[in-house]
UniProtKB/TrEMBL annotation:
<feature type="domain" description="Nucleotidyl transferase">
    <location>
        <begin position="10"/>
        <end position="274"/>
    </location>
</feature>
<dbReference type="GO" id="GO:0006011">
    <property type="term" value="P:UDP-alpha-D-glucose metabolic process"/>
</dbReference>
<protein>
    <recommendedName>
        <fullName>UTP--glucose-1-phosphate uridylyltransferase</fullName>
        <ecNumber>2.7.7.9</ecNumber>
    </recommendedName>
</protein>
<dbReference type="InterPro" id="IPR029044">
    <property type="entry name" value="Nucleotide-diphossugar_trans"/>
</dbReference>
<dbReference type="InterPro" id="IPR005835">
    <property type="entry name" value="NTP_transferase_dom"/>
</dbReference>
<keyword id="KW-0808">Transferase</keyword>
<comment type="similarity">
    <text>Belongs to the UDPGP type 2 family.</text>
</comment>
<dbReference type="GO" id="GO:0003983">
    <property type="term" value="F:UTP:glucose-1-phosphate uridylyltransferase activity"/>
</dbReference>
<keyword id="KW-0548">Nucleotidyltransferase</keyword>
<dbReference type="InterPro" id="IPR005771">
    <property type="entry name" value="GalU_uridylyltTrfase_bac/arc"/>
</dbReference>
<dbReference type="Pfam" id="PF00483">
    <property type="entry name" value="NTP_transferase"/>
</dbReference>
Length: 302
């Protein structure tokens, strides 16, 4: 069983990446601050953690990430200006991000991979199980994936990853899991993991997406994990070792997710996420859908 049965209460969000796929927009702006409709992508991720009951959030940052800290801090000058104008609606939206959670920050320093970023959280997390949320994956709030993962971790112990079936031609972009069924239809036992395999080497087409609930034993495992693919310390490699254990931090289970996920790490998917979320907004959706239908009809005629 697991080395800890403590309730998950802390979330870790790695946010030290350079965002090179979005250059030049990310030359001076962290990719996590790129807007998805009218909120930065990172705010959706923090809101997801809070909705799952995790109000203690540690963000792993790097150089040029100060805007992340500023966004979740108070802006007294702006708040005062909005107060003088009597603009209560915008004032509430400004304060929303600073009132979300208790935020903490630590710099990763050397960019040694996701596994190293997670290892940077050890002093804050200690010997408790914790959640890791990657900012490139936005999970629709109507599909409470993280809450389900926390309940699975409480039931089975060990660590839990989020899995999603992907097109075989896309599996090389993800970690791929070998799986075995459990008594729960949406839960599988992970028996092996391969980081970014070719299609013919993938143990399955169930991909690990950016949500994890980790046993603290992962820290000692990461310390022993040698750099893997890309010369980085891969979280997948550490989880593979834990998956082979029945105790001392193991096993690893997966929650098979079939809900709505928006990938903001790819430019095309980022744009599609904005369109989908804008269409579903009560304040923006009706007018935006009308315009979108007219635009598509015009494009079809050309």
């Amino acid at each position: 069983m697991t080395s800890s049965r403590t309730r998950v209460s802390k979330a870790v969000i790695p946010a030290a990446g350079l965002g090179t796929r979005f250059l030049p927009a990310t030359k001076a702006t962290p990719k996590e601050m790129l807007p998805v409709v009218d909120k930065p992508a990172i705010q959706y991720v923090v809101e997801e953690a809070v909705s799952a009951g995790l109000s203690d959030v540690l963000m792993i940052t790097g150089r040029n990430k100060r805007p992340l800290e500023d966004h979740f801090d108070r802006n007294y000058e702006l708040e005062e200006a909005l107060t003088r104008k009597g603009d209560e609606s915008r004032l509430a939206r400004v304060r929303e991000s600073s009132d979300l959670a208790t935020m903490h920050y630590v710099r990763q320093g050397d960019p040694k991979g996701l596994g190293h970023a997670v290892l940077c959280a050890e002093p804050h997390v200690g010997d408790q199980p914790f959640a890791v949320l990657l900012g490139d994956d936005l999970i629709d709030p109507r599909d409470p994936l993280l809450s389900r993962m926390i309940s699975v971790q409480e039931q089975y112990g060990g660590s839990v990853v989020a899995l999603m079936e992907v097109d075989p031609e896309s599996i090389h972009l993800y970690g791929s899991a070998a799986i075995a069924p459990t008594a729960d239809p949406d839960v599988v036992r992970v028996t092996d993991l391969v980081e970014k395999p070719t299609t013919d080497k993938a143990p399955s087409f169930y991909a690990v997406i950016g949500r994890y609930v980790l046993d603290p034993a992962v820290f000692e495992t990461l310390k022993k994990t040698q750099p893997g693919r890309g010369g980085e310390i891969q979280l997948t490699d550490a989880l593979r070792e834990l998956a082979l254990r029945d105790d001392d931090g193991g096993p690893v289970h997966g929650v098979v997710f079939t809900g709505r996920r928006y990938d903001t790490g790819d430019r095309g998917d980022y744009l599609r996420a904005i369109v989908r979320l804008a269409c579903e907004r009560e304040d923006l959706g009706p007018d935006f859908r009308t315009w979108l239908r007219e635009y598509v009809a015009e494009e079809m005629q050309e």
